[in-house]
Amino acid sequence: MALLLVSPFSRDLRAELNSGAVHAPKYPLPQFLAGTTTQGDYDKWLSIKAFTLFRADKRRERPCALGGSISGYKKRIHDAVVSGGIVDPFTGDTLRWDLIHKWNDLQNKGRGNFMKEFSLLPTVDHKDPEAKEIEFEICSWLINGCKSDQTPQEFVETCRKIVLYRHVQKLAEHTASADALGGHIKIYVPPEFLTGICTQKMYEKWLDAHAESLYVRDRNQHRPYALTSSKALYKMAIHHAVCASGPCDPYTGDRMKWELMGTWDIIKGHGQPESYKKEYYLLPTIDHVNPWADVLEFEICSWRINCCKGDLTPDEFVEVCRRVGER
Description:
Number of helices: 16
């Protein structure tokens, strides 16, 4: 007669299943999320965030990922939610956890200013992306986009610097009318502060390339001014913005590195550590004053500030910085 061997573990498991006992979840749903999401959906959200962040950090060869794991990331994200997931740590705004299951890449891209609708969506952010230990904080999508790869201390200092500088020197207003922009300018003469930095030929090549890329992007996003504009008009508007800008960033007063014009290597940039990007923080970039206005209007600011500002207007951006600095 054959003997059926049953291990103690098998007996215990069978007894537990028969009794109807249910294991407590490894990462219990925080009390403040009760009624907003379920335990199952919370576990799914944790798993997706842990996998996505770990894979991205691993690809960028960040120290915390090289010595970490997906399970370690999941635990740290849960700890961050429990310890500070109710309000944004930089502004004090209440986070919109009801939005975590509503974001849809395919539906939202190209659909107006969807970022403002999701500005308080809770996101997971590294406190210090270059640290060896994994440490996350939960903040709004708006702040995550502004903060970029800065540490909390660096971000707050940047915000304070912006607010202070804007108090002593307002951004030079330059609203060009359609008639003014429609003039026939055959040669775009570089402003005086670019003397010795770039030649006429280099400047026009830079203008042409950026006018082309911005015009195509804005048309693809169905922005009003792009649908009734042209590449030539973009080129004129960018030139006017350069002439009005001066050598310094209009938000921090930092002297921009105009000598870096045209030197960014997008292929090399993707394969390099964060230190490579930091070398380009003061690279002059072209930014819409208000990307959702009906008027085509640019300003020149550093790459770091452009990344922080996102789709905010100058006043909205400075107000966010003021609130961060105060908190």
